[in-house]
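Reviewer 2 asked us to include a model.

Predict the structure of this chain.
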Amino acid sequence: MNDESQNTMGSPTPEELREQVERTRDELGQTVEALAGKADVKAQAKEKTEAAKKQAAEKTAAVKEQAASATAQIREKTAQAAQAVKDRTPDPVQEKTAQAATQVRESAARAGQFAVDRTPDPLLEKADRVAKAARANRTPLLAGGAVLVAFLLLRRGRGGNK
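Predicted model (structure tokens):
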């Protein structure tokens, strides 16, 4: 109560008392709401869970971005290294390398045919089903492989092999 809210006898008027009671009710309601919020463990847990999910999603996005960047850098450096090797390799060596590659391909084809000829039919059928499943799910397999390679490269680059 302030001095202005008192009448000549020093007592508040009924209107002033009503206003004071209303203010006190509002303040009490706000205080009860605040206490109820602090006591609601389930709501607090839900808020913390949502915050953790959001943080995890942000970190996942950042890791994906880093992996994509690392993959692009690796591709670029690989192309540069391949070009540097090609530029520094004399023509006769390149020709012999091409001949050796052709011989290796032919030998691999012969070995593959030999393996097919000697492999039992049920095993060939099972291998064919596995290969078809892999081709049908190529994107997840490639994405998983890319993530694994990026992880290993990042770990290696950060000195993870201590």
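The two ends are 72 Å apart (CA to CA). The chain has five helices and no strands. We have added this to the supplementary material.
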